[in-house]
Amino acid sequence: MADSPDSGPGSDPDGSVTTLRDGALLRLTLTRPDRRNSLSPSMTAALITALTAAASDDTLRAVHIRGAGDHFCAGSDWVSTNAGDRRPRTGDLVRRIPHAGHRVIELLSTIQLPVVCTVRGWAVGLGCNLALAADFTMAADDAVFWEPFLARGFSPDSGATWLLPRLVGVARARRMLLLGEKVSGVHAEQWGLIHRAVAPAELDSAAEELLAALVNGPTAAIGLAKQALHYAQHATLPQAMTQELFNLELSCRTGDFKEGLAAFSQRRPPDFTGR
């Protein structure tokens, strides 16, 4: 998929999600830099469409999500969503959000492709949770991760109360969710919130190195390992090991498994094809 001609920065007040097919890598860019890439309803819908299509595309081997300009994502655009005098019907959030922000988080967590986010500047609210739901998040050391829900007078959503305690523990989750503590890229790495923080000038090259390793990895086995990790978050140890067995059976039937064994016996690097 090539960039569409009208997907450049500033061309759409509601923003866009620019998609670019780079070999076996799908790059998704949140493109609304004048609003710190806050997600309009149309951008959220575009993310859902792109990730849903990627989930069934056997030619893809990794997904990369980034923000245009100086910031990653300032979260959902609540200001424009609630603009105007017309009040939504009672239950509007309960009806709408499961098919919007919540669906994005579910797709990131369950798609059997590795997902990498690169974060510059602010990652706020839903934007923060996008980064937490990715398999690997690389951030500039001066980036800021912030869950400002209570500071705005409403309770957390988009998976924050599930993701944060599992990543950083309940005590630090309380600091971020109940006190609204902002976390720098450096501390996010130290806490285990993200994969790695680097100097801003090194972010792109570090992310590309990671993406190259994932694109050239055993894609089916990576997807099955990701699925098992997700399943194990709510399973007992015996249940998790049973799931591992089923996934092992599947991964041992791939061409990449045969290549991995051959490479090991021949003492050479494997040449995985993702099949």
From TrEMBL:
InterPro entries from the UniProt entry: ClpP/crotonase-like_dom_sf, Enoyl-CoA_hydra/iso, Enoyl-CoA_hydra_C
UniProt-listed Pfam families: ECH_1 (PF00378)
One example GO MF annotation: catalytic activity
Highest taxon listed in the record's lineage: Bacteria
Similarity-based family: Belongs to the enoyl-CoA hydratase/isomerase family.
PANTHER family: EG:BACN32G11.4 PROTEIN, ENOYL-COA HYDRATASE
Protein known as: Enoyl-CoA hydratase
